[in-house]
Design a protein that fits this description.
Layout (H helix, E strand, L loop, with lengths): L2 H18 L4 H14 L1 H15 L15 H10 L12 E4 L20 E4 L1 H4 L2 E5 L13 E6 L9 E8 L2 E8 L1 H18 L3 E3 L7 H11 L10 E8 L8 E7 L5 E6 L8 H6 L11 E3 L7 E5 L4 E4 L3 H4 L2 H10 L3 E5 L12 H13 L2 E5 L3 H5 L14 E6 L10 E7 L8 E5 L2 E2 L8 E3 L5
Parallel strand pairs: 3-12, 4-7, 6-11, 7-8, 13-14, 14-15
Antiparallel strand pairs: 1-2, 4-20, 5-6, 8-9, 9-10, 12-13, 15-16, 16-17, 17-18, 18-19
Length: 449
């Protein structure tokens, strides 16, 4: 079976499926004959034709809608999958919304040829797939850059409460935002985000508490009806009833105040004496390792939306993500939000934070938003001193092109805020300096070829 024959059969099969919206008995017999004649090439041709037909039900596809396939689009909207949720097939079939951002002259595996993800039950273990309700989905348009509002929220350690204690022969620590000091700042931040025109806000780690979450909901509810602000990841904090509580990230709909995603930190950060000394953390003496005093999350929530397939990694989670990477690639996660509590992100030196983000671009084709506070950078002591021109509190990394032809071809936006309540602006985009007029960083909607 030649390449041209494969394409002709695939095209004929696709046309037949689109004519009725079903794989008819007659078509099934035709496929069986091709498979019998041509073996695995016949199977490939049949799968290719079905894939082309499924493209009309893919909300991220440039294909035109086809009325006969509307039932399949509705199934996906209702059940987060293209396969029958009550059928015997295990796993899920998902429309593709991203491709790995690595250099690839030709397909090297089955997944490279198709615009769906066949996700196995093993891939789904410890993964919770959810779909954002239509009332909470802004219906982001294809081709347009979606503006990100990253706000540091924390200026210094005085705006945090550090608790150190001993339990089970281990030194433990917990970091909680000071509600009294940050309560008024929430209002400043909401007003700044509204003026900036940001569509998605992303705050850092250790900026959220139960009272602050309520304050956010109240003030977001006062936004004007024509506000561009759609979603806000309100940072993370000790939320929930556990003892110890989880370090939980919360994504809310800015129009309704409803929570659309929660994610508990999974990989606690261990503070070494050297880190504690360099960062000048309160609570000396720091003579032993200290583990983060949290109840760790066990699962990842992946949110289906018009933006793409979204996940949240809390700081250390993205560094310790090896056990999750194959799963997120299988699912086709297209956007990862990462609240950080760390030293400033460097442009001159690619450290762990950017390395982890770049790996997500390579492996998934995902956009990664790293959002940090100013607190550690303002307090830490290093030799030589930190270069203020090489410190950034937000970096957005994504695929530069859909089909990269050079290694390391990332779209990297380095962003900085003037103060803890300010919205970060792009200072450098790749090798280009943006000067003082840099706009907001942006990401693009998921896509399928």
């Amino acid at each position: 079976m030649r390449v041209s024959t494969v394409r002709r059969f695939a095209d004929r099969l696709c046309t037949s499926v689109l004519r009725t919206g079903r794989v008819t008995t007659r078509l099934t017999k035709s496929v069986a004959r091709e498979v019998e004649l041509h073996g695995h090439r016949g199977v490939f041709a049949a799968l290719l034709g079905l894939d082309w037909a499924l493209a009309t039900a893919n909300p991220f596809s440039p294909s035109y809608d086809t009325k006969t396939m509307a039932w399949l689009s509705i199934r996906y909207l209702r059940h987060h999958r293209l396969n029958n949720p009550r059928g015997k097939t295990k796993g899920v079939l998902l429309p593709r919304c991203t491709r790995p951002g690595k250099v690839m002259a030709e397909g090297t595996g089955k997944a490279d040829f198709f615009n769906v993800h066949r996700v196995t039950p093993e891939d789904l273990r410890r993964i919770h797939i959810d779909r954002i309700p239509s009332r909470n989905d802004p219906a982001f348009a294809a081709g347009e850059e979606i503006s990100i509002g990253a706000v540091p929220m924390l200026e210094k350690y005085a705006e945090l409460e550090f608790e150190w204690h001993q339990r089970n022969e281990r030194r433990r620590y917990r970091v909680t935002p000071s509600t009294g000091r940050l309560n008024d700042r929430v209002g400043q931040v909401v007003r700044g985000l509204e003026r900036s025109g940001a569509e998605i806000a992303v705050l850092p780690e250790s900026t959220l508490s139960a009272p602050l979450l309520q304050q956010w909901r109240t003030l977001l509810g006062e936004l004007p009806d024509d506000s561009r602000l759609q979603w806000a990841l309100l940072g993370t904090g000790p939320l929930g009833d556990g003892n110890p509580p989880p370090n939980r990230a919360v994504l809310v709909d800015c129009r309704t105040g409803e929570t659309v995603l929660e994610q508990d930190k999974m990989a606690g950060f261990t503070v070494t004496p050297r880190v504690a000394t360099t960062w000048r953390l309160p609570g000396e003496p720091h003579e032993k390792l200290a583990v983060e005093d949290i109840s760790r999350g066990l699962d990842i929530t992946v949110l289906e939306s018009s933006l793409g397939r979204i996940a949240v990694f809390v700081c250390e989670d993205i560094k310790q993500s090896v056990q999750w990477e194959a799963k997120l690639q299988a699912l086709g996660v297209s956007h990862i939000l990462v609240p950080l509590f760390s030293s400033p992100i460097s442009r001159q030196v690619t450290r762990w934070d950017r390395q982890a983000a770049q790996r997500c671009v390579e492996e998934f084709g995902a956009w990664v938003i790293l959002s940090n506070s100013l607190a550690v950078g303002a307090e830490m002591r290093t030799q030589p001193p930190l270069d203020p021109e090489d410190g950034f509190n937000c970096v957005v990394v994504g695929p530069h092109t859909r089909e990269p032809v050079e290694y390391g071809d990332y779209d990297t936006q380095f962003c900085r805020a003037d103060n803890a309540a300010a919205v970060s602006r792009v200072v450098h985009r790749n090798d280009e300096a943006m000067g003082t007029e840099g706009g907001l960083p942006g990401v693009r909607r998921g896509w399928a070829s």
